[in-house]
Write a structure and sequence with these properties.
The protein is α/β, with parallel strands linked by helices. Among the domains are: 211-331 and 581-684, no CATH class; 370-502. Helix content is 68%, strand content 9%. It has helices at residues 36-48, 62-66, 127-131, 136-141, 154-169, 177-191, 200-259, 261-282, 293-338, 346-368, 373-420, 425-500, 506-572, 577-585, 587-608, 612-622, 639-643, 649-683, 687-744, 778-796, 815-827, 839-848, and strands at residues 2-11, 14-20, 25-29, 77-83, 87-93, 100-105, 118-119, 124-125, 144-145, 749-754, 760-764, 769-772, 804-807, 832-836, 853-856. Strands 2-1-4-5-6 form a 5-stranded antiparallel sheet, with helices on one face. It has a 5-stranded parallel sheet with strand order 9-13-14-3-15, sandwiched between helices. Strands 10-11-12 form a 3-stranded antiparallel sheet. The radius of gyration is 59 Å and the shape is elongated. It starts with a strand and ends with a strand.
C-alpha cells in the first residue's frame, strides 16, 4: 500500500496545499516550523481521525485542538489518495459534530465506504484497518516514528500481542482478543461474585439465603400450627369424653333422686330456683343470644390483627413519607444542578487560542531574529573599509595616470627634438644619450600603463563590491523594518486575542482556560450526578407505587375487619371499641351461664319424669318460660348401672361441677388455640409460595453460575491459545530484529532477544554474553527500538508492505550507522516517507538513492 497524494484543504498552518508522493523513498525537507510534523499528523488523522481511544463515548484528543486551522475556522478537512491494488480516495472532515469519513474508488468514483469496518463509538468508517492492518496504538508504535521516540510504549505490548494472536489464529485484524477478554471481564463484573453483596450474583445468593431462612422459620411455624391443631383435636375429644362422663353422672344422680321422692322434691325445687336465678343473670347478656362462638373468636382475632395491621399501616405510611421526602430532596437537587448551564466546549476554544497565542509568540521570535544588529554593523564597517580602499586605489590610479601622461609627453618632446637638431654635434651626443633614455621612457610608459589599467580594474571591482554591500545593507535595513512590522502585527493579533477574553496576558488566559476546564468538568460531574439522581428518583417512584399498593391492601384488610367488627358492635348495641373488648370478655361468662341453665333444665326434666306431683308443680312455675318439654323421654339407669352407683348424690353433684369446669376450661383452651393458629397463619406465607420464589431464585442463581463458569473456561482457553501463538511468533520477531541490527552495527550485534513485554536484550559477540539494552549507548538504544518497530510491523502485518513514516528519527545515529540504516531502508520493498531538517541526512540519502523524490517545504 502506498500514499500517492496529500490534499490538505485546511489543517494547521496549511491551506489548499497538495503534496505528491511516490514509490520508494520520499524525502520531505524543511526547517523548524515549516510544517513537517503537521504533515505527519495529517497522514495519521486521515487514517484514524483525532479521537480518544478506548472510551465508550466519542471525545476528541488534544491533537484535534493542536492542528485546528489557523485561518479558516469553518473548514477542517483533507483528502488522501492511496494505492492498494487500485487507487482510492479517502475524504475526511475533522470538524467536531460534522466529522465524517468517505472512501471512493478513484477510477470509477464509486463510494465504497460501507465495505470498511465501522466504529460505533466514533460513528465513522475505519480505512486504516483494511489498508494498514493496525489500530492507532500499533500504528504509533511501529510504522510511525518521531524524533527521539523510537522506544515503544506500554500500550503497544497489549496491542502487538493482540495483533500477533489475531493474525496467527484468525488471519484478521478486526477481531480483537483484548476486546474479547475485556468483554468477558465486563460480563463477569456485571454478574458479580458472592462477596460483592451489591452485585446481581451476591444479591441473588443473599435472597436465597434469606428465603431458605424464611422457609426454615415457616416450617417451624407450620409445625407449631400442626401441633396446635392436634392439641385442638385432642381437647375436642377430651370434651366429648367429658360430656359422656357428665351424662353418665347425671343419670346416676337421677337414679338416686328417684330413690327418695322427698329428697327429690327438695332437689327439684332447688334446681328450679337455680334455673330462675340463672335466667335472671343471663338477661344481662341477652345481646349474645344470636352470636356464635366462632363469630366471637373471629372478631377477637380480627381485633388483635387490627392493631397489628394498624401499626404496620402507620409504619408503611411513615416509610412512604420518608421516600417521598427523599424524592422531593432529589428533585430539588436535580433542579439546582440543572439550573446551572455551562456551554461545553468553551475550554477547547480557549485552549486553541492559547495554542495560537504561543504559535504567534514563536512566530514573533522567528520574525525578530531575521536581522542581527551585529550583521548590520559588520556590513557598515566593511562598506567603510571598501570605501577607503576605493579612495586609495583611485588616488594611486590618478597618480599612475599622471606619470604615464608625463612620460608620454617626455617621449613626445624627445621625438620632436631629434627632428629639429640633426646637425648639431653637441646636441647629437646629447640626443644619442637621449635614444637610450627614450627606450627607458618607453618601458616606463608601458609599465605605468599596465599599472594604471590594473588600478582602474581594481577600482571598478571595488566599486561593484561597494555597491553590492550598500544594496545588501539597504536590504537588511528594509528586512529589519519589515520584521518590526511583522512583530507589531503579531502583537496586535495577540492583543486582539487577549481582548476577546478580557485578559491582560497569556498567563491570565491560561488561568481562564484552567478555570473553564474545572467548571466544565464539575458541570459534567454534576450532570452525571443529576442523571444518577433521576434514576434513583425513578426507582423511588416505583418503590412508592409498590408501597402504596401494599398500603391499599393493608387498608382493605383493615376496612374489612373494621366492617365486621362494626356489624358485631351494631348487633351488640355497642358504640366504642373499648366497650366491645370488655363485652367480648363476658361472652365466656354468658356461655357458662347458658350451659348451666341447660344442665339444670336437663336435670330438672330427668328428676320430674314419672313424678306427677313434681312435674305439675314444676311445670306450673316454669311452663311460661318453656324450659321443660313434658314429653321428653330420658332413659333410666339399667340394673347393672344402678348397682354400680357409688357415693352420695352430693358427691356426684360435686363431680359433675368439676366436669363442667373442665369442659369450660378446655373450651377456652380451644378458643385460645384457634386464635393462635389464625395469628400464626397470618404471619407466614404458604410453603408453596416460598418454594416457588426459592425455585425462581435458584434457577437465576444457577444461570449466573453457569455463565460465570463458561466465561472463566473461555477466558482460560483464550489465554492459553494466546501464550502458544506468542511463543510461535517470538522466534520470527527475534530473527527480523537481529537481521536489522546486524546490518546497522556491522555485525557487532547479531543476536537480539525480545521478551513478551517488548524488553530487548542483545548478545555482545566480543564479550560473548547477554547484555541488557540499558547498558548500551543512547544512540544504540534508539537504533534497537527503531529496529524493533520495523520488525514488529513486518511480523504483525507481513501480508502487505505498508508505508514507513519517519520524522527526524536518526538524530542520535553516527554517520556510519546512518548510512547503513538508510541503505537498508532504501532496499525495502515499501514506501518510505522521511521528514528531516538536517542537511547531513539529505546529503547521505541523495548519495545513496538514485531515484529519490524530494519535497521542499522552504
Amino acid at each position: 500500500m502506498n500514499i500517492r497524494r496529500l490534499m490538505i484543504k485546511s489543517f494547521g498552518k496549511f491551506q489548499n496545499t497538495t503534496i505528491e508522493l511516490k514509490d520508494g523513498l520520499n524525502l520531505i525537507v524543511g526547517e523548524n516550523e515549516s510544517g513537517k510534523s503537521t504533515i505527519h499528523q495529517f497522514i495519521e488523522g486521515m487514517f484514524y481521525g483525532f479521537y480518544k481511544p478506548n472510551i465508550k463515548t466519542k471525545k476528541t484528543s488534544e491533537t484535534y485542538d493542536k492542528y485546528f486551522p489557523w485561518e479558516n475556522a469553518t473548514d477542517y478537512s483533507g483528502v488522501m489518495i492511496i494505492e492498494d491494488g487500485r487507487e482510492l480516495r479517502i475524504e475526511r472532515n475533522f470538524m467536531k459534530n460534522r466529522d465524517s469519513v468517505q472512501i471512493f474508488d478513484e477510477v470509477t468514483g464509486e463510494n465504497i465506504s460501507e465495505r470498511y469496518p465501522y466504529d460505533s463509538v466514533t460513528k465513522t468508517y475505519q480505512p486504516a484497518l483494511n489498508h494498514l492492518g493496525l489500530n492507532l496504538a500499533a500504528y504509533q508504535n511501529t510504522i510511525s516514528i518521531t524524533q527521539m521516540k523510537s522506544k515503544t510504549t506500554e500500550e503497544l505490548i497489549g496491542e502487538i500481542k493482540d495483533n500477533i494472536i489475531n493474525l496467527g489464529d484468525t488471519k484478521r485484524v478486526d477481531v480483537s482478543v483484548n476486546n474479547i477478554l475485556k468483554t468477558l471481564s465486563e460480563r463477569k463484573a456485571a454478574i458479580g461474585t458472592e462477596r460483592s453483596k451489591k452485585s446481581n450474583y451476591g444479591k441473588t445468593k443473599e435472597t436465597i439465603e434469606y428465603i431458605e431462612s424464611e422457609k426454615v422459620d415457616t416450617l417451624k411455624i407450620w409445625e407449631e400450627i400442626k401441633q396446635l391443631k392436634l392439641t385442638e383435636n385432642k381437647l375436642a375429644q377430651d370434651i366429648h369424653d367429658l360430656e359422656k362422663k357428665k351424662k353418665h353422672i347425671e343419670k346416676k344422680m337421677i337414679f338416686l333422686k328417684k330413690q327418695d321422692s322427698e329428697e327429690s322434691y327438695q332437689k327439684v325445687h332447688q334446681i328450679r330456683e337455680e334455673i330462675n336465678a340463672h335466667k335472671l343473670d343471663i338477661q344481662k347478656y341477652y345481646a349474645f343470644e344470636n352470636i356464635s362462638k366462632e363469630e366471637v373468636n373471629d372478631i377477637i382475632i380480627k381485633m388483635n390483627n387490627r392493631e397489628f395491621y394498624k401499626k404496620a399501616f402507620e409504619e408503611e405510611q411513615e416509610k412512604i413519607s420518608d421516600m417521598i421526602q427523599k424524592k422531593i430532596s432529589i428533585e430539588n437537587e436535580v433542579d439546582q444542578i440543572d439550573s446551572i448551564i455551562i456551554e461545553i466546549g468553551t475550554s477547547e476554544k480557549i485552549s486553541r487560542d492559547v495554542y495560537r497565542y504561543e504559535e504567534f509568540e514563536n512566530s514573533k521570535k522567528y520574525a525578530g531574529q531575521t536581522i542581527e544588529p551585529e550583521n548590520v554593523e559588520q556590513l557598515k564597517n566593511e562598506t567603510g573599509k571598501i570605501k577607503g580602499k576605493v579612495s586609495r586605489t583611485k588616488a594611486m590610479y590618478t597618480l599612475s595616470l599622471f606619470i604615464t601622461v608625463l612620460l608620454g609627453l617626455i617621449k613626445l618632446f624627445e621625438t620632436i627634438g631629434s627632428i629639429r637638431i640633426k646637425d648639431n654635434s653637441v646636441l647629437f651626443g646629447i640626443l644619442t644619450t637621449g635614444k637610450n633614455l627614450s627606450f627607458v621612457t618607453l618601458i616606463g610608459i608601458l609599465l605605468m600603463l599596465v599599472v594604471t589599467l590594473l588600478l582602474w580594474s581594481s577600482t571598478k571591482n571595488k566599486k561593484i563590491e561597494l555597491r553590492d554591500l550598500e544594496n545588501k545593507t539597504k536590504q537588511l535595513l528594509e528586512s529589519e523594518s519589515d520584521s518590526i512590522k511583522r512583530v507589531k502585527d503579531i502583537e496586535e493579533r495577540q492583543q486582539l486575542l487577549l481582548s476577546n477574553y478580557e485578559c491582560e496576558n497569556v498567563d491570565g488566559l491560561k488561568l481562564l482556560r484552567d478555570k473553564t476546564i474545572r467548571e466544565e468538568l464539575l458541570y459534567e460531574e454534576n450532570y452525571m450526578k443529576a442523571r444518577q439522581l433521576e434514576e434513583e428518583k425513578e426507582v423511588l417512584e416505583r418503590r412508592i407505587n409498590q408501597e402504596n399498593e401494599k398500603l391499599k391492601e393493608q387498608q382493605r384488610i383493615i376496612d374489612d375487619d373494621t366492617d365486621r367488627i362494626g356489624k358485631l358492635m351494631k348487633k351488640l348495641g355497642i358504640s366504642s371499641m373499648e366497650v366491645l373488648k370488655s363485652t367480648l370478655d363476658q361472652f365466656d361468662t354468658y356461655k357458662e351461664i347458658e350451659q348451666e341453665i341447660k344442665n339444670k333444665e336437663y336435670l330438672f326434666a330427668q328428676m320430674t319424669e314419672g313424678k306427677s306431683y313434681l312435674s305439675i308443680e314444676s311445670a306450673e312455675e316454669v311452663d311460661n318460660d318453656g324450659l321443660i318439654e313434658s314429653e321428653q323421654d330420658l332413659s333410666l339407669l339399667t340394673e347393672d348401672e344402678a348397682v354400680d352407683v357409688d357415693g352420695s348424690y352430693d358427691e356426684l353433684e360435686e363431680h359433675l361441677k368439676k366436669l363442667n369446669d373442665e369442659i369450660v376450661y378446655e373450651n377456652k383452651e380451644i378458643s385460645r388455640i384457634i386464635t393462635s393458629i389464625a395469628e400464626k397463619e397470618n404471619r407466614v406465607r404458604s410453603s408453596s409460595q416460598i418454594d416457588e420464589e426459592l425455585s425462581k431464585n435458584y434457577e437465576e442463581f444457577d444461570k449466573m453460575t453457569f455463565k460465570l463458569n463458561t466465561y472463566n473456561i473461555i477466558e482460560d482457553a483464550i489465554r492459553h491459545i494466546s501464550r502458544n501463538i506468542q511463543d510461535n511468533f517470538a522466534p520470527r520477531l527475534n530473527e527480523k530484529i537481529s537481521k536489522v541490527i546486524s546490518i546497522a552495527t556491522d555485525y557487532k550485534y547479531t543476536d537480539v532477544k525480545v521478551s513478551a513485554n517488548m524488553e530487548i536484550s542483545v548478545v555482545d559477540n566480543e564479550l560473548n554474553k547477554l547484555v541488557r539494552i540499558d547498558d548500551l549507548s543512547a544512540g544504540t538504544i534508539d537504533l534497537m527500538y527503531f529496529a524493533l518497530r520495523l520488525s514488529i510491523a513486518e511480523v504483525v502485518n507481513s501480508c502487505q508492505a505498508v508505508p514507513i513514516i519517519l520524522d527526524d528519527s536518526f538524530v542520535q545515529y553516527d554517520e556510519r550507522r546512518l548510512i547503513k540504516m538508510l541503505e537498508y531502508l532504501s532496499k525495502l520493498n515499501r514506501q518510505i516517507i522521511l521528514f528531516t531538517c538536517h542537511k547531513r541526512e539529505s546529503k547521505v540519502i541523495k548519495r545513496i538513492v538514485e531515484d529519490l523524490h524530494v519535497v521542499n517545504l522552504y
